[in-house]
Amino acid sequence: MAAPICPLCGRRKARRACPALGHPICAVCCGTKRRTEINCPDDCVYLASAREHPAAVVVRQQQRDIGRVVHAMRDLTQRQSRLLLAASAFIAGYRPPELQPLLDADVVEAVGALAATFETAARGVIYEHRPTSAPAGRLLAALKPWLAELGGRLGTAFEQDAAMVLRRIGQAAQEAGTWNLGNRAYLELLARLQSTIGETPESPSDAEAPRLIVP
Q1: 138-193 per-position pLDDT tens digit
Q2: Which residue has better confidence, 49 or 189?
């Protein structure tokens, strides 16, 4: 009997029994989604093996993920780079209401609208740009007060920095559509990197450069 198709990617053969999900998945999804989308039990044999001998596919995935984040930070200042990492961590940790999933397109729309609001504020005009989709609106509503609180400690240049960073995040989420990895490719990247992009910094103006640590 032929192996079933992996329900996570919908493309590859499901040959690994997953104790967390209760059904087989493919080796690639097992390697790249463990402890991010899959809540692996500590006694999973594949998890234990991966800790001792990371698969080449996992190492390559980590290298691609880091490369994509570094590309998004190209020519940014240290403060902007730290803000980008902090905002990425916030988005990675954001949990939408149940049965109302967030997609990459919603991220693009939310950060685009918020960037436009910061851009007009930097010009002395107060105008709230709003996304059209409800999931994007909810993300914006969660992200905006967090950024506002952070901006209160960073001075008048914050609006320009925030707009630049949000535009870069939007570009990265939009580029993820070219990876042919589904409509949550960028969000899945952030989930994989959640443990490496760090928590919200005390101050993105800190002189210490942002650090990315490959797990």
Answers
A1: 999 999 999 998 887 665 689 999 999 999 999 999 999 999 889 999 999 998 88
A2: 189
Q: Is 71 in the same domain as 163? A: yes
Judgement on whether residues 177 and 142 belong to the same structural domain of the protein: yes
pLDDT band for position 63 (cuts 50, 70, 90): confident
Segments forming the whole domain that contains residue 95: 60-193
- Whether 204 is in a domain gets the answer no
Exposed/middle/buried for 215, CB within 10 Å: 0-12, 13-18, 19+? exposed
- Helix ranges (H only) for the chain are 27-33, 45-52, 56-72, 78-93, 104-122, 134-151, 158-175, 185-193
Q: Which two tokens stand for residue 192?
A: 């994989």
What's the structural domain count of the chain? 2
Taking the C-alpha atoms of residue 145 and residue 141, their distance in angstroms, rounded to an integer, is: 7
- The answer on 26 and 122 residing in a single domain is no
Q: 145 phi and psi, to 5 degrees?
A: -65, -30
